Amino acid sequence: MKFVNINKSIICVAALLVIIAGTSCKKGFLDVNDDPNRSTDKNIRADLLFPQAAVYVGNRMATNNLRFLNCWMGYFAQPGDFAILQDETSYSIDFTFGDNLWQNHYDALYDLYLTKVKALAVQDSVLAGSAMVLSARLFQDLVDIFGNIPYSQAFQTLIYRQPAYDKGQDVYNALQKSLDSAITFLHATPSDNFEAVDIVNHGDATQWIKFANTLKLRLLIHQSQMAGFNPAPEIAKIISNGGVLHAGEDIDVNPGFVNENAKQSPFYANFGNTPTGADASTSTRANAYFVDLLGHYDDARIERFFNPVGTSFVGATYGLVEGNPGGAASSRIGPGLAGSATQDAWIFPAYESMFLEAEAIARGWMPGDVQTAYEAAVTESFVWLGVEDAADWAHEYLTTADIAIWANAGSSVSDQVKFIAFQKYIALGGVDPTESWSDLRRLNMIPDNGYISVNPSRISNTLPVRLLYPQSEYTANGSNVRAQGTINQFTSKIFWQP
């Protein structure tokens, strides 16, 4: 596991001071005996760290590190003027494949950990709770991608130079408790500058609590296929603490993105345009599978997911060695995802929470009408993507597309949750491929295998169920990672998989 030197966390302090200017400066900060430009533990305050850490979380959702999952899940593909990535499209991945993803997630988690520790040291429990909620999002993703991970000993470098791995189930359980603590912290009185420092929810503690509840539900939903699993105690907490995120309650971050180098909104910077207007990712285009799926059902969201080529939407076939349309002849990522250099960076869209709630209602875990909840989630997806006249188009889709009409969902819990999860898969195109992959691994809800790579060298007709541990771990934390045994990307399942 890579550990971050403390100086890394104050690289952007000067920029962050602009974000919170006028709200956190103290007379002593400019004392002649102190150099405010010198990186010391004394002047690395929680309120300076948090905005940077929050932006890093938004970066993690928009990162090129997850591009492979957008391709695996049938959302994106490479155009014909690029050679296909043999390891990715054949599923023959090695120990270096997930290295950057692992290290970058832990980099962000380190800043969140430091924020929590420093906030609690000055009795700023609301800021600490906010950092803990964001941490839970990233830690769950790491478990869902890699399995067992360093958790309980992570970042305590003075005690544990090589942190042990915690079982995935234990991390999930610990995250439920951490989120409970975060909710308790968030009920406290915030600091005077919390609203300015909080570039996620702008001082709205209720929104933070709903986000924490949503993550608690997400942890439960992923374990839904485990024999004997009982979510009732945690569901009761979620309901009593105000429930989950609903329409319009998106979790985003924006420190003031502008159309300049290294200052653009991250998804736009990665998949939209450079500050000079050039294509930021000439190797990323629409996947023909997703284009065909959306087009077949006249789904209005297609024009938000992708840009047309002339009057048509054109995708590339994932893994095709020769014959794909070139970049100029295939659809780029559209304005619903990469719309502006100044757009908010999403951390958790409200409609993803609404799909989780719909599944929980279908399972009998939460009260409510499942059809109403499901249709609200689909409609919110249209709204979130910016479809014009979104409610009307969503209604048209929900009443004419056979894959969306609730009457076609079936009467069994199994059929209904797969029906909901397939629509969730469509809604999450390019937004949260980790969640789509998790749903596929637990429910196998996609009705065909058109998303599978056509590379003739592929070594499996199904997607890997996990990534291998990164090479950096075998180098720096060898004994602990080797203690996890021999890992295979197709047979070493995540603990919650059926």
- When the domains are counted, the total is 2
Counting DSSP E segments of at least 2 residues, the number of strands comes to 6
Instruction: Provide the structure class.
Output: mainly alpha
Strand order across the largest sheet: 1-5
Q: What profile does the largest beta sheet have?
A: 2 strands, antiparallel
| CATH-scheme architecture of the largest domain | Alpha Horseshoe
The CATH class assignment of the largest domain is: Mainly Alpha
| Helix amount | 40-55%
The geometry reads as: globular
- Summed over residues and divided by their number, the pLDDT gives a mean of 93
As a percent range, the share of strand residues is under 5%
Runs with pLDDT <50, length 5+? 2-35
Distance between the termini: 29 Å
Radius of gyration: 22 Å
Question: How many individual helices?
Answer: 20
According to CATH, the fold-level topology of the largest domain is Serine Threonine Protein Phosphatase 5, Tetratricopeptide repeat
Order of helices and strands: HHHEHHHEEHHHHEHEHHEHHHHHHH
Descriptive overview:
The protein contains 20 helices and six strands. Helix 1 packs across helix 2, helix 6 (125-146) packs antiparallel against helix 7 and helix 9 packs across helix 14. Mean pLDDT is 93; it is low at 2-35. The strands form three sheets. Strands 1-5 form a two-stranded antiparallel ribbon. Strands 2-3 form a two-stranded antiparallel sheet. Strands 4-6 form a two-stranded antiparallel ribbon. With 498 residues, the chain is mainly alpha-helical. It has helices spanning 13-19, 46-62, 67-72, 86-90, 99-121, 125-146, 168-186, 194-197, 205-222, 232-240, 266-271, 288-296, 302-305, 350-362, 370-385, 390-400, 413-427, 433-443, 471-476, 478-482; strands spanning 76-77, 149-150, 165-166, 251-253, 285-286, 345-348. The two termini are 29 Å apart. The protein folds into two domains: 1-65 and 93-226 and 465-498, Alpha Horseshoe (Serine Threonine Protein Phosphatase 5, Tetratricopeptide repeat); 287-463, Serine Threonine Protein Phosphatase 5, Tetratricopeptide repeat, CATH 1.25.40.390.
